[in-house]
Amino acid sequence: MPEIEEQDVLFRASQGDQEAFGVLYENYVERIYNYVYYRTGNVHDAEDLTARVFFRAMHHIQTYTDRGVPFSAWLYRIAHNLIANWHRDRSRHQEIPLSDAPNLHYKGEPPEIALLQSQEKDVLLKLIRHLPAERQHLLILKFVEHMSNAEIGETMDRSEGAVKSLYHRTLLSLRDELELHDPEENLNH
Amino acid sequence: MGSKIKKISDFSLGKITSMEHRLSGVLKPIKPRKEFVRGIAQRIQIKPRVAFVDRIANWRLIAILIAGLVSLTVFLTVLGRAIVSLANKKPNAHI
Known about the structure:
The complex is a heterodimer.
Chain A: H1 3-14, H2 18-40, H3 43-60, H4 71-90, H5 111-129, H6 133-144, H7 149-156, H8 160-181, H9 183-188
Helix pairs in contact in A: 1-2, 2-3, 2-4, 2-6, 3-4, 7-8
Chain B: H1 2-26, H2 34-44, H3 48-94
């Protein structure tokens, strides 16, 4: 959606126009869902939290003020807060494995290779979910949303250079974590 | 010294490229279920204005039903009285 058009829709939504809010929902639901999915690791909680993000946004849209950052940043902040509460509530419980991911299996591979690759993916996803929230957000914006460093900077309220530096540090630490987790893995890559 | 730094940076670059490759295979866009997206959209777009109009429409229907019942009652009463009146008048006509 062009920026001017979005500003108009945002203005109408902030005046209580639910149809306008519906347009915003259509535009952002997939992005928020992806963010929540990769932060929580399961479809059920991703749906529940995504719904809550939009209901909360709908109830507080009147208080939204345009500070020059993308509207998505506001939604991501709501999602981040809800996910933080969700992690707090679940901290007493055991972690549920990422078993219901819809695209975990490689089609066309022999089952044993597919299983190994799937396990490798699980390990990497778990390591990602143990990163600080900011780094997880960065990776999701980079690989799921395919955003440039400048766009990520706008969304995360950081400079392009800071994003680039954080990105490199994140990848290196992730690589180190992966080596610690499975040293043999390093020989293959 | 310079070549050592270059080696380290090449090593880091290699690590980064390798991780980028792996991450691009793991972090892929996922489509939420259509029913889920539609369900939330419906809940979001229920306008109080529409609900109010619906309520008015219901009131109108109830009013029309009540008016219809009253009219029917009045009509039946008048018809009944007319029949009774006619039935009472017939014997008098012979006299």
